[in-house]
Amino acid sequence: MSRIAVIADDHGMYRMGLAFTLKDRLGFDDVEEAASLDEALSRLGDTDGIALAIFDLSMPGMQSAASLAAVRECYPDLPIAVVSGSDSRTDVLAALAAGVNGFVPKGLKDDDLVAALRTILGGAIYVPATLAQSTGHAAEPSSSGIDLARLTPRQREVLDLLVEGRSNKEIARALDLGHGTVKIHLAAVFRHLGVSNRAAAAAIAAPLLGR
To answer: HTH luxR-type domain: which residues (predicted)?
Structure first.
């Protein structure tokens, strides 16, 4: 089956350049382009073999990063990336809360862009260090109330594996825990970090862990 990506961005030249990168550097067979959220949803519904969806935050139909929550609900296993010119803390956290797999700045150099998309395709969460730090959690963790030393050793192990992009099943296997036990530890970690999902937890914890 062909390996296909969808790029949703209302700037045609940017779509063209990104499509070339996906084919030339990341081995995609084809790229479906869309200039609005509605067009992107149509491409997703009509095309088989989609392995990556990329969305800009500033295009027709996109109210905010939260608009992508519906995309995640419909396609729970699809790698989804936001590629944006924004460096807003609100946009970053809203995108992660919506369930995307990464927030990629449009200003990244080509090699860094390829590395970011490879991270996302590999199942991990990508947020560049500069944006993670802009959330205010990385530079001064004590002042933000986040101190990983307050986690139990087991919670810290679970968090380490989450940041690596491991699924609950993989975490359970690696630590010889039951799936329910992993969920309990994750719930405690989320509460400590002040987040509600894996993506936001990984984005906040990664710089604190030196990742």
So the answer is: 144-209
Task: For residues 129-141, give the mean pLDDT.
Answer: 47
At the topology level of CATH, where does 148-208 sit?
Answer: Arc Repressor Mutant, subunit A (1.10.10)
Which CATH number among 1.20.120.1730, 3.90.220.20, 3.40.640.10, 3.40.50.2300 corresponds to the domain 4-134?
3.40.50.2300
Q: What is the pLDDT of residues 186-206, one digit of tens each?
A: 888 888 887 778 878 887 888
**179-193 and 153-163 helices cross at what angle (nearest 10)?**
90
